[in-house]
From TrEMBL, chain A:
<dbReference type="GO" id="GO:0006506">
    <property type="term" value="P:GPI anchor biosynthetic process"/>
</dbReference>
<dbReference type="Pfam" id="PF06728">
    <property type="entry name" value="PIG-U"/>
</dbReference>
<feature type="transmembrane region" description="Helical">
    <location>
        <begin position="357"/>
        <end position="373"/>
    </location>
</feature>
<protein>
    <recommendedName>
        <fullName>GPI transamidase subunit PIG-U</fullName>
    </recommendedName>
</protein>
<keyword id="KW-0256">Endoplasmic reticulum</keyword>
<feature type="transmembrane region" description="Helical">
    <location>
        <begin position="401"/>
        <end position="422"/>
    </location>
</feature>
<dbReference type="GO" id="GO:0016255">
    <property type="term" value="P:attachment of GPI anchor to protein"/>
</dbReference>
<keyword id="KW-1133">Transmembrane helix</keyword>
<feature type="transmembrane region" description="Helical">
    <location>
        <begin position="194"/>
        <end position="219"/>
    </location>
</feature>
Automatic annotation (TrEMBL), chain B:
<dbReference type="GO" id="GO:0042765">
    <property type="term" value="C:GPI-anchor transamidase complex"/>
</dbReference>
<keyword id="KW-0472">Membrane</keyword>
<dbReference type="InterPro" id="IPR007246">
    <property type="entry name" value="Gaa1"/>
</dbReference>
<feature type="transmembrane region" description="Helical">
    <location>
        <begin position="495"/>
        <end position="512"/>
    </location>
</feature>
<feature type="transmembrane region" description="Helical">
    <location>
        <begin position="524"/>
        <end position="548"/>
    </location>
</feature>
<dbReference type="Pfam" id="PF04114">
    <property type="entry name" value="Gaa1"/>
</dbReference>
<feature type="transmembrane region" description="Helical">
    <location>
        <begin position="618"/>
        <end position="640"/>
    </location>
</feature>
<protein>
    <recommendedName>
        <fullName>Glycosylphosphatidylinositol anchor attachment 1 protein</fullName>
    </recommendedName>
</protein>
<keyword id="KW-0812">Transmembrane</keyword>
């Protein structure tokens, strides 16, 4: 009874904070003209700026190619969805208020999906712990509702808020990514496929998420290392079956799935993916038919991302590098920089294959660190997902350092930008220094979170080994 | 943090040297922070010794390499202008427009393009985020009263050799309603140079002479002109207001012609503001240079150096720099100077190569100058109309020339005009030589290398302290807490709430200003009361809901966590401020760093009755007293200006002035200093 009341209270608490975050966003949107966030390079990149989208829509309305003049580089579908909203003005309200409301809805939806994913992950994890007889571990220290925490971290993260208020399309991109992860977690193949196709179509980099998604669909959500299950099974089989053992064996027969790769959802997923892919391509083809066709589209969107044509300063490290590099080395370094992301895919996939969702998180951090036009919206996504592992990462090192670093960098970088661009007392190096510090922070975050996760696995293994010994004696 | 934990688990294992070094430093962190702080303060005191001689880094400038061409002919023309202006003033023609017409007449006689620019005075508005945005976002024009407006007169000479893309600006502020002799003289100097420059062949940059109407303040006039120069208003509010006002006037057509004919030259390479002080000097003609723009930003060092070089070596003017006069009579400073002098002698005896000693008198004077420049930079208020240029990335200085005798002695006045004119001519000639922008990229230069050392030493110790205070906490609570490495979250939340409160406190004066008939003292009291009230409310609202997650965990040694989070907040704030306004960060660090590092609960100290603990209690109380911004202000004011006649209203006035200029120092006091002080007091009074 008391537990029920407690959970009800928690529920209420969650909804209060959710409504609070929405209210804050609406207030900030109302004052968005004063804040002038949309012009900040940290928030709106050439890919995510809504101003550019409005420009592209205008070009399209006057029957020109929306990609003319290197203004717009996003997807044509987003253009036809958000474009009409940018053109509509309501008297007495800030510009683009309808788009802002769409972004608020996208943020709330993302938070809800994160919450559902978190619950799903937690239940699955609890089951596998039960299977390993490590329930005590989870009961000794009360498990935090990671879904709620992650959702609130996502909603209240200043990065998410400024990305939402600052008129960038990254809330929509984040929603697509979260949708795909949610679908994969719940093993809803059509949804997962739709999310992945949309995310890839909108921002290209989520293409690498196909590996964790296949793992998620094949193995199910995160579990402790597979070896433990085998060990456990071996112990059970080897033991002379006593009564209570038998009972337990029956009870755990059901969740025996975790370490078997089931191909069915994966095949489903691939089938649906191809279906959605064809659908999206056809839609794109229709909308850009008279402006040079699909090839032109790819060149203007994905080509623009991969060849780093816009060298205006942003939070990443690539603009500075490619402004300096000699032209004949440019192609080589483009390959090196993008290869950097690809190099890390396989080793990480092998090491973390038992935790596909965490693997997806790591991929997202890496790609948002090395992508060509990063913005705070990307950080908002991975920081929100980090909240999902709050129980596993309780021992993470340098958490305070990272916290202070993120605050310091996000305050320093506008100041440095101002010194460089408006005051003229600084130069490009000032701003780039904060970009480098930011990249370093992300590296530390990814290294520390992975090592904390591996330590957690080690701890589980130790506990399970003592359990097995106990069982034998 | 991580190190300390691993060390707890396996103390026997031989550790790497760097880890052992770290542990050694952590265990002696108190001593270390005291040493670092003292080193920082000592370095600050040594700065006059370490100052370097300035030099001109841009070779193209070549100051003083050409003979001055300004002759008595130009001077006599300028004398005519001065006489006309003063006679106009004596006649009291009332309308300011007469004098402007006169000046415009003189300008166009020289063949310059003349235009007028009309502007409306703007009440000072608070733009807290002004620093983070472009200058144009601050152009909110409202409440313009049509009857009061100022009129700037602008004359432009097109360079015979230039492509019209660059320009040098001369500014002479004057009050059109009452022209003093000093203002007339400054106009005379500018006029003599201007008339020379219409004839010379070497001019490669256009010359703009702005006669700024200082009826509503010098800064406002120059700022209005610059805004029109850089941000043309094509449509919208500005024009509409202007049109609205035109309806009220008779000679609309001529006014419109004036306004439409807003003339531009190229981008500005440099700007010189010329003023002549009304007061007279005792010994010789002297020149004061004012350079501080908003938020302590300084113009390029080369510009100041040229002026300095030409004034001293060519025109024989004495350069005066602002000083804290009260420091000159300071006993302990003199003693320190003498000690340093004797140390210098000693060093010279040991090795003749070591030359760092300076005479005690020089040292005292250097310290006084340094203090005053630090203070004026830290205030963040521009010291003259040159500050307006800095917002548009133009290097500018104000030159205030004061003559020896103020009498209307004809020959004396001619000589004065000649010297002033030649100085300006030389500076313009140097700037004219420039091929590109000034490129010496100093903006902390008044105290260049030595200060960076100071800041480094002082900022180093928070990190050590942080480790120290985390160390006992991690040792104390072993396992059993869920968020082991995240246990700082609660303290971080508290710090965040207090900083939010700081933002609220910052906004309060905006509302208090609206209360009519308030003396400074009452507004200050109202402000304090409202602040306390808002602090209570904020704790009541934000203190409760989040805490139930952590309610189960007893926060052991909570104050240590709180202290470490406070120190890191102070560290981030000081880092940020040192980029925006270094002088503010320096003064702030002097007050805040010892306070944050020393903070320790009184209860614990009083319990263990030792001398060391009692001294810490005394230190804490003293630092807590001096760290509170109003008391700090009043104490320093009392020390420098005497204690009689001081009231808390002074603090309010001071704060209002930096608020009106939207200085970043205001934000610093409210968002960083005050919250950190509150948190330190919280730690000191912690119930443990």
């Amino acid at each position: 009874m008391e537990a029920k009341e407690q959970s009800k209270k928690k529920e209420l608490w969650y909804w209060n904070w959710l409504i609070g975050s929405v209210a804050l966003r609406v207030i900030l949107i109302y004052f968005s003209n004063n804040l002038n966030l949309a012009s900040r390079p940290e928030i709106s990149t050439p890919l995510t700026s809504l101003r550019r989208l409005a420009e592209g829509y205008w070009l399209k309305q006057s029957s020109m190619s929306p990609y003319a003049g290197s203004m717009y580089h996003g997807s044509p579908l987003l253009l036809s969805l958000l474009g009409p909203l940018t053109a509509k003005r309501i008297e007495g309200q800030p510009d683009h208020i309808l788009c802002s409301l769409v972004f608020v809805i996208a943020d709330v939806a993302s938070a809800m999906f994160i919450r559902a994913t978190g619950r799903n992950l937690q239940i699955a994890y609890g089951q596998s712990l039960k299977f390993l007889d490590l329930v005590k571990l989870s009961e000794k220290s009360d498990i935090l509702p990671s879904g709620d925490i992650a959702a609130l971290v996502y909603l209240w993260n200043p990065f998410t808020i400024v990305a939402c208020v600052g008129l960038s399309t990254s809330p929509v991109e984040n929603l697509a990514i979260i949708l795909s992860l949610y679908g994969a977690c719940r093993r809803i193949a059509p949804l997962a496929a739709f999310g992945w196709v949309m995310a890839t179509h909108l921002s290209l980099y989520p293409v690498i998420l196909i590996i964790p998604m296949i793992l998620l669909l094949g193995y199910g959500p995160d579990t402790p290392p597979r070896k433990l299950f085998l060990q456990r099974k071996y112990v059970e089989v080897g033991d002379t079956p006593s009564n209570d053992r038998c009972q337990q064996g029956e009870a755990v027969d059901q969740p025996e799935l975790p370490y078997v790769f089931s191909w069915r959802p994966v095949i489903h997923f691939l089938f649906w993916t191809s279906l959605w892919l064809v659908y999206v391509l056809v839609l794109c083809g229709v909308s850009v038919k008279q402006y040079g066709g699909l090839w032109e589209l790819f060149k203007r969107t994905y080509g623009f991302m991969l060849t780093v044509q816009d060298l205006s300063p942003n939070m990443g490290v690539l603009w500075y590098f490619f402004a300096e590099v000699f032209d004949f080395f440019r192609n080589f370094f483009l390959i090196v920089f993008h290869g950097n992301i690809l190099f890390m895919i396989l080793p990480l996939a092998i090491r973390l294959k038992h935790r596909p969702f965490f693997l997806a998180f790591v991929y997202i951090v890496i790609s948002s660190m090395l992508k060509s036009y990063p913005s705070v919206g990307d950080s908002a996504l991975y920081l929100g997902l980090l909240g999902l592992f709050v129980n596993e990462l309780a021992d993470m090192k340098f958490s305070f350092f990272l916290f202070c670093g993120y605050i310091g960098v996000s305050l320093l970088s506008p100041v440095m930008h101002n010194l460089w661009i408006w005051r003229g007392t600084g130069n490009a190096n000032f701003y780039f220094a904060t970009a480098m510090a930011y990249a370093c922070l992300q590296i530390i975050l990814v290294v520390e979170s992975v090592s904390a996760m591996l330590n957690h696995d080690r701890k589980l293994r130790k506990l399970s080994a003592t359990k097995v010994l106990d069982g034998k004696t | 943090m991580g190190e300390s934990e691993s060390e707890n688990e396996a103390p026997k294992v031989k550790l790497r040297p760097i880890v052992r070094l770290g542990m050694f430093l952590i265990s002696h962190s108190h001593l270390l922070s005291v040493v670092c702080c003292t080193a920082g303060v000592l370095t600050l005191l040594l700065l006059p010794l370490l100052a370097k001689n300035t030099y001109i880094s841009e070779n193209a400038l070549m100051p003083g390499s050409a003979n001055p061409m300004l002759s008595s002919q130009e001077v006599s023309e300028a004398n005519g202008l001065v006489k006309d202006l003063t006679s106009l003033d004596l006649k009291r023609m009332a309308s300011g427009i007469e004098s402007q017409r006169l000046i415009a007449q003189y300008m166009s006689n020289l063949g310059a393009e003349v235009s007028f620019q009309k502007f409306y005075p703007q009440s000072n508005q608070f733009h807290p985020l002004h620093f983070f945005s472009s200058p144009d976002s601050a152009t909110i024009r409202e409440n313009i009263s049509c009857s009061s407006y100022g009129l700037n007169t602008v004359g432009i000479i097109r360079a015979p050799r230039g492509d019209g893309k660059e320009a040098i600006v001369l500014v002479t502020p004057y009050n059109s309603e009452k022209i003093g002799l000093g203002e007339a003289l400054s106009l005379g100097i500018a006029y003599s140079v201007f008339s020379l420059l219409t004839r010379v062949t070497w001019l490669a940059k256009d010359i703009i002479w702005v006669v700024a109407d200082s009826k509503y303040g010098e800064y406002a006039a120059v700022d209005a002109w610059l805004r029109d120069y850089y941000i043309p208003v094509f449509s919208g509010l500005g024009i509409q207001n202007a049109e609205m006002c035109h309806g009220l006037e008779e000679n609309t057509i001529r006014e419109r012609n004036m306004r439409d004919g807003f003339k531009r030259a190229g981008t500005m390479a440099a700007a010189l503001v010329i003023k002549v002080a009304d007061r007279s000097e005792q010994f010789e003609d002297s020149l004061s240079i004012y350079a501080e723009a908003s938020n302590g930003q300084m113009p390029n060092l080369d510009l100041i150096n040229i002026v300095n070089y030409l004034a001293v070596h060519r025109q024989g003017l004495r350069i005066k720099v602002e000083k804290m006069w009260s420091l000159l009579n300071c006993k302990w400073l003199k003693i320190l100077g003498e000690i340093l002098e004797s140390l210098g002698h000693l060093a010279k005896n040991l090795n003749p190569q070591w030359k760092f000693g300076i005479p005690a008198a020089d040292y005292v004077e250097g310290t006084a100058t340094l203090t005053s420049s630090l203070y004026y930079q830290a205030l963040g208020i521009p010291t003259g109309p040159h500050g307006a240029f800095r917002d548009y990335q133009v290097d500018a200085v104000t030159l205030e020339i004061s003559s020896r005798v103020s009498s209307n002695n004809k020959g004396r006045q001619n000589d004065f005009l000649l010297r002033g004119g030649r100085l300006i001519e030389g500076v313009i000639r140097s700037v004219n030589n420039l091929l590109e922008k000034f490129h010496q990229s100093f903006f902390l230069y008044l105290l260049t290398s030595p200060t960076s050392l100071y800041a480094h030493a002082n900022n180093l110790d928070p990190s050590f302290e942080k480790n120290e205070s985390n160390h006992p906490a991690s040792a104390a609570d072993e396992l059993g807490i869920t968020l082991r490495s995240w246990k700082w979250l609660y303290a971080a939340k508290k710090v965040l709430v207090v900083h939010l409160w700081g933002a609220v406190v910052l906004l309060l004066p905006y509302f208090i200003c609206q209360i009519p008939n308030c003396t400074p003292t009452t507004s200050f009291v109202v402000w304090v009361l409202l602040s306390i009230f808002s602090l209570l409310i904020l704790f009541w609202i934000l203190g409760s809901p989040f805490s139930y997650v952590y309610a189960s965990q007893p926060q052991q040694r909570e104050w240590a966590l709180l202290k470490s989070v406070t120190i890191s907040a102070a560290f981030i704030g000081l880092c940020l401020m040192s980029v925006i306004n270094f002088a503010t960060a320096e003064i702030g660090a002097l007050l805040m760093v010892p306070m944050c590092l020393m903070a320790h609960p009184l209860k614990l100290d009083v319990k263990s009755r030792k001398l060391r603990n009692f001294s810490r209690v005394a230190c804490n109380l003293a630092l807590g007293f001096i760290g509170f911004p109003p008391t700090a202000f009043l104490v320093f004011k009392g020390v420098f200006e005497g204690f009689d006649g001081i009231s808390v209203g002074d603090f309010w006035n001071w704060l209002e002035s930096i608020w009106a200029w939207s200085s970043a120092t205001y934000l610093y006091i409210g968002m960083i200093h005050l919250p950190c002080w509150i948190l330190c007091i919280h730690v000191i009074l912690h119930p443990c």
